[in-house]
Specification:
414 residues; alpha+beta; Cytochrome p450; three-stranded antiparallel sheet; 10 strands; globular
Length: 414
């Protein structure tokens, strides 16, 4: 069996690591190859702790340039390491925490309710496309960027196209990179307008990014997109919510009631069960020996994201969709890694995870309050497509709202 992970991803998609693990006797940790180099593949809590040990592993140089430039952009924080990375990361942490996360959740809630009111008059909607626009327009407004609806929609769709191309599939990559170039030009223009005084941005997210004069207009624009893009990407998880509701119709009423603990548990289980990122890669900063196997400096270490989120030694009945496992229990930073693991202030865990959590909560509640028919072709979860998205982009038919929106005071918060 070919033990090259990159070839396995092309052939088997999300099943690549599982197939290699099976060939290695089912071990949690095993050796393989990544881009021609030796690689140590890890999963589980200890694997996550090892992967995020900054004295052993760096993410710098771990992502192939075609993917890094497409998804994150030139000069982005994702390609930095050490103190330089931590300093740049502070900017992200300052803009996505606490009250700021609540504001974005409320913005999504308002725009989603308004959008869904119009869905009833249409024969069907493609949920993924609708969520892309709602989430994108919401995060652009939240960031303090005033643009028209058509411009917000165009930028949102470009960012979704960038994310959709990270599986690097032929023409899809070319479309993604064209979208990346358009988004770069747009964001660079926004930064120049703020810095030149053409846009008033005091006290806003875009103002905070533009105020970092150590960044060129281009790099500041890239980092602005790296704040906006992850929110648009939540549409992939949001699109799986109807499939999850079909698996657990007994949860529909409790989600419609809007109890925060239920909404959060359901969203956590969606992120645990449905695929997005199959793996994360790092490079060793020094020689490392594991069970007699020597891995040289610059060899790869690969974190099996799906294998960790569905590790049978940690999650009872790991392939069952059971939101109750998260009721009144928050997973720690090393057992559950849909947005990466470890400390977001010191490592590469996505600082926007609280935003994703809140967005999924309000989306789950809105869908639970809506009757619809899920198109038969949208019920499958393609595991060779990365990122996965059901056929038809999750088509919902014959929509009808069944309950009124919750007053502001009762809205779930992160």
């Amino acid at each position: 069996m070919n033990r090259e992970i990159s070839i396995g991803l092309v052939r088997h998609g999300y099943g690549a690591i599982a197939k290699l693990r099976e060939a290695s006797g089912g071990a949690d940790w095993f050796t393989a190859r990544m881009l021609g180099r030796r690689a140590l593949v890890v999963r589980g809590e200890q694997g996550v702790r090892t992967f995020y040990d900054s004295e052993l592993v760096t993410r710098k140089g771990a992502i192939p340039a075609p993917l890094r430039l497409l998804l994150f952009g030139r000069g982005a924080v994702h390609g930095l390491a050490g103190e330089v990375h931590r300093e740049r990361k502070k900017m992200y942490l300052e803009v996505v925490g606490g009250v700021s996360a609540d504001r974005l959740t409320e913005e999504v809630d308002r725009r989603l309710e308004r959008a869904m009111a119009g869905w009833e008059d249409r024969g069907s909607v493609r949920l993924f496309d609708e969520l892309t626009v709602v989430y994108g327009a919401s995060v652009i407004a939240w960031a303090g960027i005033e643009v028209g609806d058509a411009e917000a929609e165009a930028v949102s769709r470009d960012l979704a196209t960038v994310v959709d191309a990270f599986g690097v599939r032929g023409a899809g990559y070319a479309r993604g990179y064209a979208a990346r170039l358009r988004a770069n030009r747009w964001a660079r223009g926004i930064i120049r307008d703020v810095r030149g005084g053409a846009r008033i941005a005091d006290g806003t997210v875009v103002g905070r990014v533009a105020s970092n004069r150590s960044l060129s207009d281009s790099v500041a624009g890239v980092e602005l997109l790296n704040i906006l893009r992850p929110t648009v990407a939540v549409a992939y998880f949001g699109a799986f919510l109807p499939l999850a509701l079909e698996r657990r119709p007994d949860w529909r009423e409790r989600l419609a009631a809007g109890r925060p603990a239920d909404l959060r548990a359901f969203g956590h289980e969606v992120r645990r069960c449905y695929p997005f990122v199959p793996l994360l890669t790092g490079r060793l900063v020094r020689d490392h020996t594991w069970k007699g196997h020597l891995f040289r400096r610059r060899n790869f270490i690969v974190l099996d994201v799906i294998g960790t989120n569905q590790d049978p030694s940690h999650w009872p009945e790991p392939t069952s969709f059971e939101p109750a496992r998260f009721i009144d229990r928050e997973p720690n930073a090393y057992e559950y890694v849909p947005h990466g693991g470890g400390d977001p202030a010191r490592g590469h865990r996505c600082p926007g995870e609280p935003l994703a959590v809140g967005i999924l909560e309000v989306t789950a509640r809105a869908l639970a309050r809506t009757d619809y028919e899920l198109a038969p072709e949208s019920r499958s979860v393609p595991l060779r497509r990365v990122p996965s998205l059901p056929p038809g982009r999750v088509e919902l038919r014959h929509l009808h709202r069944t309950s009124a929106p919750t007053p502001d005071a009762d809205r779930p918060t992160t």
